[in-house]
Amino acid sequence: MSWTDRACGIGDEAAPGLTEQLAIHRELGLGAIELRTVDGRGLHELTADALAEVAERVRAAGLVVPVVDTPIGNWSTTVATGLDAELSVLAGSAAAAHALGSRWLRVMSYPNDGRPEAEWAAESLRRMAVLTREAERLDVRLLHENCQGWAGRGPDETLRLLDHVASPALRLVFDIGNGLAYGYEATEFLGKVLPWVDHVHIKDGHRTPDGAVFTLPGRGEVEVADCVRQLEQAGYRGRYSLEPHVAHIPHLAATAGAAELAAGYRACALAFREIWETIPHD
User: Fold this and answer.
1) Is the CB of residue 126 less than 8 Å from the CB of residue 134?
2) What is the DSSP annotation of 232-264?
3) pLDDT, tens digit (0-9, with 9 covering 90-100), for 69-98
4) Structure confidence at residue 253 as a pLDDT band (50, 70, 90)
5) How far is CA 140 from the centre of its chain?
6) What residues have CB less than 8 Å from 232, skipping those under 6 apart?
7) Residue 62 and residue 57: Cα distance in Å, rounded?
8) How far apart are CA 161 and CA 139, in angstroms?
9) d(CA 36, CA 154)
10) Is the pTM for the entire model greater than 0.90?
11) Residue closest to 83 by CA, chosen among 40, 144, 125
């Protein structure tokens, strides 16, 4: 199976504008694009007419959108962020997903605002349960990422979240490289949560005293190939989405110029293809 059938990427890691995002994905031969922002705006912020235009442009490019990335529970929030505001973002994101022919929304589970561990856990779990019930009503599915937020701290927290919410409308996106920042090994985390993984983010890099530094897939210390092999052997047949952070890191407000952004993304895509081609596939 060709890597282009299973690989995609987050558009704004390649370019800020939709035209360039689509062109780069087409150039690479990818059949899908994960959308987070278009011209700096989240999809939940777009009007119905603007969403219809985005959907038509994606369709005309011959691409599909498997996942819409939302800011729900991410680095721009805390566990004290107003839940009504988050439910509004959920409604807008669900509308975007439906307009684009998708049902999956990427979410996280809220960074702490300084409260004790037990209180942080309880409020994160409460919020995720409320959001998931609303997702059920809106006919979308939440994909929780192992990133910012209480349940992204480790596999035990993730499993506790899934058990607490107990809904098919809450599943997982597993980011292979996030352990660089959060202190766990990717293969160990993945082994515990793999049955609930419906989407995968590709990232690689190194731990440094100043934090994670990201690099091309396969060039860092993350076991990218081992994770992909583990997923494939377990029967995972979802997509692998590039979120390399080599030239665009939203939570650090760091981004490169257009040429560097596009070149870095292309290089990451080709590096992942090299990994993909070393792994047996059905």
Assistant:
1) no
2) HHTT--S-EEE---SSEEGGGTEE--HHHHHHH
3) 999 999 999 999 999 999 999 999 999 999
4) very low
5) 16
6) 279, 280, 281, 282
7) 9
8) 20
9) 24
10) yes
11) 125
